[in-house]
DNA sequence: GTCTATACGATGATAGAC
DNA sequence: GTCTATCATCGTATAGAC
C-alpha cells in the first residue's frame, strides 16, 4: 500500500518518464539505472521489481510512444489506399508519404512529453546497442511494409527495389531531421533547432516526394 | 626497441585497426579498452601510453579515415565551382552533390579496411556520446559549408534556409544508407546489405538531386 | 619505451529485511 | 510493495617494474 499520499504519477510512470528522458540524451548504455531511478525519485531496485530488467524497461518506454503513433500511421496509410481503390486510381505518392511522415512529426506537438522521444527515434535505427535497434525494428517493420506496398501501388512504373531504397533514403532524411530538430543541446551544423513540426513537414515532404518520383 | 620481430603492423596501428572495428559495431561506450587491446593483441595500458586517453584514440581513428576523404571531397567540390565559374554558368546541382557523395561511398571500395568505418560514419551524427558527435562534427563542418555554398550557387532561386535543410535531408539519407549497407549483421528491414558502392551512388544521386530541385 | 599489475569508481542485478 | 545492503563485473587510468 502507498503511504497515503497518492501522488500525481505512480512509481511505474515516473520510472518511464525518467527513463525516456535519459535514454534520449544518454543512450541505452549511458542511461544507468541509478540515474534513472535517481531522477524518478524512486528506489534503485524498483526497476527490476516493476519491469524485470533494463531491457524490459527499454521496451516499455518505446512501446508507450510507438504503439499509439503506429495506430495513427496505419489508419492514415490504409485510408490512402482505400480511397484510391474506390476511385479506381492509384494512390498519390505525396499522400502516402504524408500519411507516414506527418503523424510522426506532429506527434511531438500533440504530446509535449514526447519531445525527448524525438531524439531517441532519430537515433533508433543506428543505435550502437543491438537491443535498441532490435526493439525499434520490431515496432517499425510492419508499418514500413505497409508504406512500401502503398508506395509500390503509387509508383507502378518503378521497380520495387528502387522504391525500397528510396523509402530508406526517406526514412534516413526524416530520422536525421527528427534528431537534430529534437536536440536542444548541440547547435548542429548551425541549424536552428527550434523549428516547429508543421514547418518541418512542409520542408521535408516536397523533398522526399520529388525524390520518390525522380527520373 | 622491438623484440626483433618487426611484425607487419606496429602496436599503434594494430590498436587503431581494432578500435575502428569495435567502435563501428559497439559504439564508443560499448567498445571497451579491454576489448580493443585484446583484439589488437597488445597490453591494456598501451592505449593510454600511445594515445593518452580513449577519447584521443577515437580522434585518431576518425582522423585517419576522414582527412584523406575530406581532401578528395574538397578538391572535387572546388572543381565543380571553378569549372562553372570559368564557363560563366551556375554549377550543376547533381555535380555538386556527386562531388560530395561519390567519394564518400567509393571510399569503401578504395580502402577495404575502411568498410567497418562505414557503419561508424552512418552513426556519427546521432551517436549518443557527445564526444563522438563533437569530433565528427569538427571534421565534417568545413566540408558541409563548402557543399552548402556550392549548392546555393547551383540553386540561386531557392532561399538559403531551404537549401540548408535539404542538404540535411541529403546527409540523413546518405548516412542512413551507409549505415545499413555497411552493416553485415542485421538484415535491416529486409534490405540486401551487400550492395556495392557504385550501385548505391546510382540509387541515391537521382533521389537527392530531385529533392534538391523540388518545386 | 614498453608492458604487468593494480587502483578505484560505477554498473546491472539480487537477496532479504521491513 | 518498498527499501537497504551487497555481489560480481566491468570501465578508465595510473604507478612502477623491466
Can I get a quick summary?
The structure is a homodimer. By secondary structure, chain A is mostly helical. In chain A, about 75% of the residues lie in helices and about 0% in strands.
- Structural class designation of chain A: mainly alpha
Largest interface: A-B, 53 and 52 residues
- Gyration radius from CA atoms of chain A, angstroms: 19 Å
Mean of all residue-level pLDDT scores of chain A = 90
* Helix proportion range of chain A: over 70%
User: Whole-Å distance between the termini of chain A?
Assistant: 65 Å
CATH topology of chain A, by name, is: Tetracycline Repressor, domain 2
- Number of H/I helices of chain A: 9
- Relevant CATH superfamily of chain A: Tetracycline Repressor, domain 2
Low-confidence stretches of chain A: 1-8
Oligomer: homodimer
SSE blueprint and pairings:
The structure is a homodimer.
Chain A lengths: L10 H20 L2 H8 L5 H5 L3 H34 L5 H18 L4 H10 L5 H25 L5 H23 L14 H17 L2
Helix pairs in contact in A: 1-2, 1-4, 1-6, 4-5, 4-7, 5-7, 5-9, 6-8, 7-8, 8-9
The structure holds a DNA duplex (18 and 18 nucleotides).
Summary keywords:
elongated, DNA-binding, Tetracycline Repressor, domain 2, disordered N terminus, 215 residues, 74% helix, 9 helices, mainly alpha, homodimer
Architecture overview:
Two copies of one chain form a homodimer. The first copy, chain A, is mostly helical. Chain A has a single domain (63-213), classed as Orthogonal Bundle (Tetracycline Repressor, domain 2), CATH 1.10.357. In chain A, 74% of the residues lie in helices and 0% in strands. Chain A has nine helices and no strands. In chain A, helix 4 runs parallel beside helix 7 and helix 6 packs across helix 8. Chain A is elongated. The termini of chain A are far apart. In chain A, 40% of the residues are buried. The model of chain A is unreliable at 1-8 (pLDDT under 50). At the A-B interface, helix 1, helix 7, helix 8 and helix 9 of A face helix 1, helix 7, helix 8 and helix 9 of B. The structure holds a DNA duplex (18 and 18 nucleotides).
